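Lab notebook, design round three. We kept the backbone fixed and only want residue identities now. Task for the bench partner: fill in a sequence for the structure below.
Input C-alpha cells:
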C-alpha cells in the first residue's frame, strides 16, 4: 500500500500568492487551489492517495485531485513515506569534469596593508613573506598556466581567466603578456577566452586603464565605501588611508572603460556595517554598475569579526536593498545590488549544490609558482593543492577532496531548506573559523536561511510581476 507524506519544502508568500520551494529539486512552484488543498489536507499526516483524494473530491473532482497528486509526486512535493530522499545519496561529478574558470595569482605582494587581509593578516594560511612561492609569477609560468587552463577545459568553448593577487596590477607586465598569449592560443584552438581581474585601484594609471578597455577586461574594485569606511582598514603600509588615492583613479576607470560593467566588492566588518550608506556612495557618488557585499572572513575573536547583532543589522539592510532592487526590476530599471540578483539567477536556474562553490571542481587557483589549489584563497598552500600547471590536475586528490566535502558529509545541513544554495558555505571561511575546510559554517546559518527566504519572496514577486526579466537566465 502506497502511503504519502509531504515532501521537504519551504513555503512562502509573494504577490499575494502561495509558493513552495521544493528542497530536493530546488524548484519553485506557485500553488494552484487544488495543490494548496492537497498539501494542506496532507499536513503532517501520512495518507494513501485514495484517502487524500476522497476528502477533496467534492470540491475539485476526483480525477482532478488524483492528477494533481500525481503532479506533486513527480516534483517531490509529496513523497512515499519512508522513502530515502534522492538528494541524500552522494552524487559525484564526472571524474574528468572540465575546468571553466582559472584564477591566476600573478603576485602575492600588495602595496596596501589591510588589517583584515586573509593573505597577510593574522588569519593567513600561508606565510607569504617566508614561503617557497615567488613573490611574482614569471611570464613563463603564466604561459604554462594558460596552457594548463586550455588543456583542462576539455570540450568547453569558453574559458574564463581571472587575474588576482596580492595587488594584481603590481605585475602588469605579466598581465599584458598573458592576455596576448591566451588570445593567441584560444584562436588556434577554436575557443574563446574571457578575462577579469580584481584590483585595489591604487595603481590604475591612464595607460593601464586604456589597456583594460581595449582588451575588454572585466574589473572588480575592492573598496569599502566612503572615506571613513575605506580608511578604517584599507590603508598603506605607513597607515595612511587609501580613499583619496583611489577615488580619482576609479572615476577615470569608469569614464574610460565602458566596454565591460565595472563592479565594486565590499568587505563588511563589525566597524563597517552601514550597508545602505556604502551602497549609495559607490553607486550614486562614484558610479559603479554593480556592488556586492561580503562579510569579512576571520576568526571569531578578532575585533572586526561580525557577530550576531552585526548579522541582524546586515540582513535588515540587505532586505531593504533587495526590495529596492525588486521595484527597479519590475519597472525594467537597473539596480546595482548584485547579491540579490545573483541569488535570483540561481533560484531560476534551479541550482542545487552538493558543494558550496566551484572551488576544486570547475574553478581552481594557480599560485605564483604554478601550484594548482582549490581556489585563489588557497594558492600557495601545500595542504590545499590539487595539482600543478605542468603535471595537470591530480584527479585522485581532486576526487578525494570532493568526496570528503560533499554535503552528504555535513549532517548539520541535511534538514536545512537553504542547503541547495549554501551547501555548508565557503571552504576558506570554514578553515579560518573552525580549522577545517570540511566544517559547515554554522555561525551564519540563521542569516543564510533568512536571506534565502527573502530572495525566494523577491523571486516570486518578479515571477508574477515581470516574468520576462527571468528569461535572461535561461540561456
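Proposed sequence:
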Amino acid at each position: 500500500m502506497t502511503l504519502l507524506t509531504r515532501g521537504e519544502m519551504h513555503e512562502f508568500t509573494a504577490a499575494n500568492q502561495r509558493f513552495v520551494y521544493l528542497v530536493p529539486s530546488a524548484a519553485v512552484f506557485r500553488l494552484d487551489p487544488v495543490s494548496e488543498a492537497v498539501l494542506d489536507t496532507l499536513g503532517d499526516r501520512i495518507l494513501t492517495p485514495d484517502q487524500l483524494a476522497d476528502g477533496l473530491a467534492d470540491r475539485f473532482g476526483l480525477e482532478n485531485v488524483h492528477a494533481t497528486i500525481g503532479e506533486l509526486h513527480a516534483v517531490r512535493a509529496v513523497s512515499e513515506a519512508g522513502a530515502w530522499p534522492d538528494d541524500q545519496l552522494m552524487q559525484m561529478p564526472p571524474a574528468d569534469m572540465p575546468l571553466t574558470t582559472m584564477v591566476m595569482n600573478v603576485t602575492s605582494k600588495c602595496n596596501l596593508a589591510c588589517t583584515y587581509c586573509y593573505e597577510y593578516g593574522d588569519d593567513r594560511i600561508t606565510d607569504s613573506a617566508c614561503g617557497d612561492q615567488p613573490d611574482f609569477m614569471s611570464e613563463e609560468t603564466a604561459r604554462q598556466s594558460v596552457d594548463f587552463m586550455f588543456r583542462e577545459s576539455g570540450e568547453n568553448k569558453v574559458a574564463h581567466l581571472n587575474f588576482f593577487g596580492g595587488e594584481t596590477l603590481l605585475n602588469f607586465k605579466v598581465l599584458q603578456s598573458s592576455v596576448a598569449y591566451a588570445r593567441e592560443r584560444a584562436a588556434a584552438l577554436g575557443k574563446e577566452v574571457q578575462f577579469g581581474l580584481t584590483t585595489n585601484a591604487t595603481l590604475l594609471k591612464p595607460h593601464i586603464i586604456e589597456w583594460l578597455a581595449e582588451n575588454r577586461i572585466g574589473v572588480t574594485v575592492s573598496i569599502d565605501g566612503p572615506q571613513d569606511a575605506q580608511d578604517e582598514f584599507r590603508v598603506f603600509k605607513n597607515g595612511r588611508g587609501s580613499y583619496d588615492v583611489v577615488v580619482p583613479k576609479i572615476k577615470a576607470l569608469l569614464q574610460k572603460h565602458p566596454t565591460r560593467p565595472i563592479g565594486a566588492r565590499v568587505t563588511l566588518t563589525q566597524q563597517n556595517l552601514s550597508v545602505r550608506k556604502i551602497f549609495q556612495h559607490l553607486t550614486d557618488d562614484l558610479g559603479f554598475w554593480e556592488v556586492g557585499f561580503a562579510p569579512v572572513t576571520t576568526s571569531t575573536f578578532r575585533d572586526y569579526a561580525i557577530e550576531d547583532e552585526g548579522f541582524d543589522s546586515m540582513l535588515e539592510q540587505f532586505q531593504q536593498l533587495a526590495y529596492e532592487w525588486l521595484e527597479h526590476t519590475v519597472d525594467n530599471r537597473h539596480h546595482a545590488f548584485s547579491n540579490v540578483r545573483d541569488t535570483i539567477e540561481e533560484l531560476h536556474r534551479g541550482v542545487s549544490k552538493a558543494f558550496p562553490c566551484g572551488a576544486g571542481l570547475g574553478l581552481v587557483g594557480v599560485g605564483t609558482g604554478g601550484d594548482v589549489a582549490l581556489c585563489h584563497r588557497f594558492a600557495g598552500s601545500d595542504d590545499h593543492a590539487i595539482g600543478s600547471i605542468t603535471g595537470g590536475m591530480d584527479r585522485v586528490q581532486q576526487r578525494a577532496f570532493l568526496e570528503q566535502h560533499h554535503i552528504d558529509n555535513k549532517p548539520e545541513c541535511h534538514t536545512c531548506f537553504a542547503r541547495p544554495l549554501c551547501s555548508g558555505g565557503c571552504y576558506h571561511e570554514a578553515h579560518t573559523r573552525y580549522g577545517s575546510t570540511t566544517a559547515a559554517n554554522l555561525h551564519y546559518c540563521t542569516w543564510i536561511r533568512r536571506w534565502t527566504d527573502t530572495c525566494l519572496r523577491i523571486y516570486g514577486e518578479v515571477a508574477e510581476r515581470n516574468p520576462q526579466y527571468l528569461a535572461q537566465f535561461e540561456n
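Keep this in mind before ordering anything: The first helix runs from residue 33 to 42.
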